[in-house]
Specification:
about 75% helix; single chain
Length: about 90
């Protein structure tokens, strides 16, 4: 009887764990849909995460910048391009 009761508790434990995993996955899907509706929201979330990391301890945060940013900046600093000859 003791083994049967232990097996029943383990079964309930696994079901509760699986329901928790499903709930967490569903919340992630909902969050992804919400973040995709506004492009700036993912940037703001990213910056909020960096702030939370920096508050915990005296840390150095590496802030990745897309390469496209530098090519756009380089084009801006180079000035207008001369017209192409045909």
């Amino acid at each position: 009887m003791a083994k049967q009761a232990e097996a029943e508790r383990e079964k309930r434990s696994k079901i509760i764990h699986a329901e928790g995993e499903f709930s967490a996955a569903q919340r992630l899907v909902d969050a992804a849909h919400l973040l995709s509706t506004e492009p700036a929201s993912i940037q703001l979330r990213y910056l909020q995460t960096l702030t939370e990391i920096g508050v915990e301890k005296n840390t150095t945060v590496v802030f990745p910048v897309p390469i496209d940013f530098f090519s756009g900046l380089q084009n801006l600093l180079a000035g207008p391009k001369p017209p192409a000859k045909s």
